Amino acid sequence: MTILVTVQGQLITGDKQVIESMAPEGPFAAVFEDDGSTGYFYALDTSGDDNPIQDALHIYNADEVSDGDIPSDVKIGWSEDSKKCVLLINGYPHGVFDFDGKRGYCRTGFPPPVSHDWSKTGHEWDDAVDDFFR
């Protein structure tokens, strides 16, 4: 899997934290946020004047993570064309955004789409996303 990692951090599940990553090229960005109770991954397009958030993926509920007190390695990486990104926690992909296809994928398949343009068929995980980073 070819991934250009642009940001890396450590996370204790349930501790409030925001990790932001800009695409190596272009207007796209991704943000992972643990607000103390949930973890979400956001796709942003900074080229417009309106709300930059294009999509949101539920990653976890903090109280359901059994080993959340153990520090986890968090990385956000991008495809070589800067149009797809992945959230890796301890090297495992938990969320992916395809900015060209306007689709988000996560292990929980939640929430319903936040916009009419993105993830019209939902957020269900598809193992084909591995091909985004080859």
Word description of this protein:
With 134 residues, this protein is mostly beta strands. The N and C termini lie close together (5 Å). The chain has strands at 4-11, 17-22, 28-34, 38-45, 53-61, 72-78, 84-89, 92-98, 103-106. The protein is globular, with a radius of gyration of 14 Å. The strands form two sheets. The chain has a five-stranded antiparallel beta sheet, with no helix packed on it. It has a four-stranded antiparallel beta sheet with strand order 2-3-4-5, with no helix packed on it. The protein has one domain (4-133).
Briefly say what this structure is.
This protein has no helices and nine strands.
Can you lay out the helices and strands and say which pair or pack?
Blueprint: E1 4-11, E2 17-22, E3 28-34, E4 38-45, E5 53-61, E6 72-78, E7 84-89, E8 92-98, E9 103-106
Antiparallel strand pairs: 1-6, 2-3, 3-4, 4-5, 6-7, 7-8, 8-9
Query: Poorly predicted ranges (pLDDT <50, ≥5 residues)?
Result: none
Q: How many strands in all? A: 9
Overall structural domain count: 1
**What is the succession of H and E elements?**
EEEEEEEEE
Shape: globular
Radius of gyration, in Å, reads: 14 Å
Strand order of the largest sheet: 1-6-7-8-9
- Category by helix and strand content: mainly beta
What's the pLDDT, averaged over the residues? Answer: 93
Please give the count of helices. 0
Separation of termini? 5 Å
* Major sheet details: 5 strands, antiparallel
